[in-house]
Amino acid sequence: MPTHKFRAAVACFAASIAVTPSARAQWAVIDVPAIVQLIQEVQTMQQQLATAREQLQSAQQGLQAITGNRGMEGLLGNTPRNYLPSNWTQMTGALQGQTSGYTGLSADVQNVIAANAVLAPQRLSTLSGADQQQIQAVRGWNALQQAVTQEALANTSGRFASLQSLIAAISAAADQKAILDLQARISAELGMLQNEQIKLLIIHQGIQAQESSLRQQTRERVIDGHGRFEARFQPVP
């Protein structure tokens, strides 16, 4: 019953008591203002309870927006990450085709060797064993560096496209937690890319050092083949 109707009913009841003095002794005295005040207090409590429910719901929604799992760690799960050899043994194994985990790299090395070779196998076989080993070693390390560079370029290009997809997904994120998770995922991908760049640089430095060693061996063979320089132009008795 609405408040104004209740008040009107109470007033009528009080008036009926006033016009029947004989019946007044049979009824308890009703404090109309107290009842009205009680009704107002109940209504106020109902409004406060409704406000509290709204605040609780808003707080729960806010908590859900910043907590929980959004599944961002599973994004780009099929992306190849450790595609480069992890140590020098794996590097030499990939060069010789003996590392099972890097068969693609080994195949690329053999393809590059075949593409870059100038001496035909028949001509190579006429050289000394030392010269054959030297030429094959130089071919292999040059091909390995070229194959690693090609694979790193292809992988980095693919990772760049993956990063673009993560960045584009930020605008479609449903809440703050999803956005934060995406940003953290992007930072993690950038960190892994940076680590791969450092690793690639170290691999190139190692290959260059190996090539430098082969050049040094070549120079020493040349010197050894020509004999001692200090005695070369001395007349033979």
Structural commentary:
The protein is mostly helical. The protein has helices at 3-19, 21-24, 32-66, 88-96, 103-116, 121-125, 129-170, 176-226. Helix 4 crosses helix 5, helix 5 packs across helix 7 (129-170) and helix 7 (129-170) runs antiparallel to helix 8. The N and C termini lie far apart (140 Å). Mean pLDDT is 78; it is low at 20-24.
- For the residues shown, what is the average pLDDT? 78
Helix content: over 70%
Beta fraction: under 5%
**Quaternary class:** single chain
Question: Structural class, judged by helices and strands?
Answer: mainly alpha
List keywords for this structure.
75% helix; mainly alpha; 8 helices; 237 residues
In short:
The chain is mainly α. Helix content is 75%, strand content 0%.
Question: How is the secondary structure organized here?
Answer:
Elements: H1 3-19, H2 21-24, H3 32-66, H4 88-96, H5 103-116, H6 121-125, H7 129-170, H8 176-226
Helix pairs in contact: 4-5, 5-7, 7-8
